[in-house]
Design a protein that fits this description.
By secondary structure, this protein is α+β, with helices and mostly antiparallel strands. Helices cover 41% and strands 16% of the residues. About 14% of the residues have low confidence.
Length: 161
């Protein structure tokens, strides 16, 4: 395992930030794990298409929604909803919307739609501002680590109750 560029202090601070999500209820086992779907719309009701079309997080509306992968997704317009329905894998956040940085560390934390980045035409969310900044210190390396850890992280989410 390669060491992260963040110092021990940074990792300790991240652990404190992520600890607040450790007591959240876990979603029931499902075919695919989507962050926040157990409490409401996926990715806190943010429109996943808007990150690509508007270049910013935009709250979706219940009036423009669809079901996918066991979650309800909200959109800012019927056009965005229809784009998502046609190609959900194109617009849905990676790692089910869970925090990309936490995943790179083999940990679980919910994603927050306000802390995001598109890399190679894929949407990634992070848990908070601090996790987002740490993730950005080595995006390429963190993505390699996230990809390696995601199967185990996903399995833990699916089996936890």
């Amino acid at each position: 395992m390669s060491p992260k560029p963040a110092s021990l202090l940074c990792n300790l601070l991240l652990a404190i930030c992520l600890a607040s999500t450790a007591t959240l209820p876990w979603p029931a086992a499902a075919a695919t794990v989507i962050s926040g779907a157990d409490k409401g719309p996926a990715i806190e009701g943010y429109d996943p298409v808007a990150y690509f079309t508007d270049g910013k997080p935009v709250r979706g509306s219940e009036a423009f929604s669809t079901e996918w992968q066991g979650a309800t997704w909200h959109f800012a317009s019927a056009e965005h909803r229809d784009l998502f329905i046609a190609m959900p894998e194109r617009y849905a956040p990676q790692y089910g919307g869970y925090c990309a940085y936490a995943t790179s560390l083999d940990r679980v934390a919910a994603g927050d739609g306000r802390h995001w980045r598109i890399v190679d035409d894929k949407l990634y969310l992070n848990n908070n501002w601090f996790a987002h900044k740490l993730w950005q210190t080595d995006v390429k390396g963190n993505l390699v680590d996230s990809e390696r850890h995601w199967p185990e992280v996903k399995a833990r989410i699916e089996t936890a109750n």
